[in-house]
Amino acid sequence: MGSTSSTLLKIPNVEVLMQETGFSPAHMIRLHDRFKALDKEGRGHLCPQDFGAIKELAMNPIGDRIIGAFFCPGKETVDFHTFVKILAHFRPVDKNRPKEPNSPEPINSRSNKLRFAFQLYDQDKDGKISRDELLKVLQAMLGMQVTEEQLESIADRTIQEADLDRDDAISFEEFRKSLEKVNIDHKMSIRFLR
Amino acid sequence: MEGAWEIAFVLFQVWLSIVVGLIVLPAMFGVSLGFTDIYIRVLVKTLEWATLRIQRGQKEQPTLPSQSANGIIEKDDGSMEEEIGELRRSHPKNLVGGDFTMCDAFYFCKKGIENIVEDQVTQRFTSEELASWNLLTRTNNNFRYISVRLTIIWGLGVFIRYCILLPLRITLAVIGLSWLVIGTTIVGLLPSSNAKNWLSDLVHITCYRICARGLSATIRYHNKENRPKKGGICVANHTSPIDIVILANDGCYAMVGQVHGGLMGVIQRSMVLSCPHVWFERSEMKDRHAVAKRLKDHIADKTKLPILIFPEGTCINNTSVMMFKKGSFEIGRTIYPVAIKYDPQFGDAFWNSAKYNIVSYLLRMMTSWAIVCNVWYLPPMTRQDGEDAVQFANRVKSAIAHQGGLVDLSWDGGLKREKVKESLKEEQQKMYSSMIKCLFSPNRIVNY
């Protein structure tokens, strides 16, 4: 009765997926429905254009970067597995989870959420946000509203504040340190209502 | 062998006369024998019981807050300013000046991911999910096996819906539509006169009443004094083709639409014989001026019936009203808005044309419990001086959304097919740039 168990079975490796990501069966089904809804041609995987078809995402200044986060370098398609694992970053932090010493860090830990945000800036994935990369993000968020000089002065100021080892770039540790008071769990989590 | 056929034939005749006698004839005269009321009451009691059983079964699991059935994720309602402001307050330097910080990107990132999981536009084109279950497996993802009793009731429900209600409804629909075609053809033979108009109205209304019974539709009309008058334009929110049946049960309208082939074409051609409707060829639809002219001519003639238009241009899932296309608001001055709200408890009336074709849609309708809806006639609105068509359209849209308890969205229903304009992204960038104060004081000296 009800379509839950039969829908769950349609998703390959769903048990493993639920364990890795921590999503509940109901959430898995919703995400699967969403995946299928985005995959308009029913190919079983998503390409950047499928994401681009989401109107609100298309008008998001850093929409392209967010879409890019789903695609591994070199790959042009996203399967459901990867889709869910990326979205798992935005699950609220499990406060009641016991800290097992040998288990891998959960995908939605505070550190991993920060790392996701860091990678939005660090597009060449060299572990540092260079001045250039920061400029590119600022340009995306501000578009035609500012001049080159204003962008450069903002970028300079930001690096000066956060860059502790004076290498003119922001490493992940420096990034983390400058944002340590931000309530990451609240600001980088999405709660399912049901 | 012969005997068996005879018995079957007799049974069929008995069945038909019961249907005609108890349903069709009272329907035509607008009389209700009270069957539908009893049916709905029994249904409501059963569904309440089913909901309680499910809630009891779910008590072991932590209960989630029951929000409106419109969203699946919690969205912060704050504006860009509030959200980014909060992010910045937790920055160690506590920049009161409101400058760029790296956590500003978090706001856009979260919004982007939220939209990937659920967006306002696509959401309106999928059926509304119910918080409780109405014994139709199609309406909810969350429910699993709870108890034997519930399964039995559900099974009974399936039997009733498919084996008893469905044949009955199909019979009624066939009778209704045949009556429409035959009746209008006969009336069409008469010369133009008041009697002809009166008969034409009679045929149309009785047919729609039979069709309404064919869907077990219970319709409540509010504010009948505002009903659309001749020479006016009636404007309503669109959820499904059934909207036409719902509205035409209480008044006669001139329909507007594209010429179809097949059965629809037959119906369209015969309808036009008895009273003027406005059917467009596909090629005519492209020419906006030709369309506008034909509609203008129609409403200029005060003896013709009010035209019925659905300005959203497409079926929306009845939780919101999307942008009204301005075309209908440029033609004439007096608009009669009507709000239609279906009660999803008894059956989801939304036609997801991407998912179902018209036949499967109608089958789904006829195997739902019932269609229960409210229709509000709003007072007529005219375009004010200095107001352009778009503003007028938005004003009417807000009135309809407000009355029907629907969300008033500014998204264009056509967006489900087109790309978003660059200007929307620029608006976001503009809003964000206003939050970076240092941009507005170019002479600020940076001191470290």
CATH architecture of the domain at 108-184 in chain A: Orthogonal Bundle
So what's the oligomer here? heterodimer
Q: Major beta sheet of chain A, specifics?
A: 2 strands, antiparallel
Radius of gyration of chain A (Å) = 19 Å
The fourth-level CATH homologous superfamily of the domain at 108-184 in chain A is EF-hand
The number of helical segments of chain A is 12
For the secondary structure, the number of strands of chain A is 2
Task: Report how far the terminal alpha carbons of chain A are from each other.
Answer: 19 Å
**Major pleated sheet of chain B:** 8 strands, mixed
CATH topology of the domain at 108-184 in chain A: Recoverin, domain 1
Number of helix segments of chain B?
Answer: 15
Helix content percent band of chain A: 40-55%
Assign the CATH class of the domain at 108-184 in chain A: Mainly Alpha
Strand/helix succession of chain B? HHHHHHHEEHEHEHHEEHEHEEHEH
Order of helices and strands of chain A: HHHHHHHHEHHEHH
Largest interface: A-B, 63 and 70 residues
Spatial order of the strands forming the largest sheet of chain A: 1-2
Strand proportion of chain A, as a percent range, falls in under 5%
Strand count of chain B = 10
Pathway (chain B): Glycerolipid metabolism; triacylglycerol biosynthesis; Phospholipid metabolism; CDP-diacylglycerol biosynthesis; CDP-diacylglycerol from sn-glycerol 3-phosphate: step 1/3; Lipid metabolism
Membrane topology (chain B): Multi-pass membrane protein
GO molecular function, one term (chain B): glycerol-3-phosphate O-acyltransferase activity
Transmembrane segments (chain B): 12-35, 146-164, 170-190
List keywords for this structure.
heterodimer, A: 194 residues, mainly alpha, Recoverin, domain 1, two-stranded antiparallel ribbon, 3% strand, globular, B: 448 residues, alpha/beta, two-stranded parallel sheet, 15 helices, 10 strands, 10% strand, flat, disordered C terminus
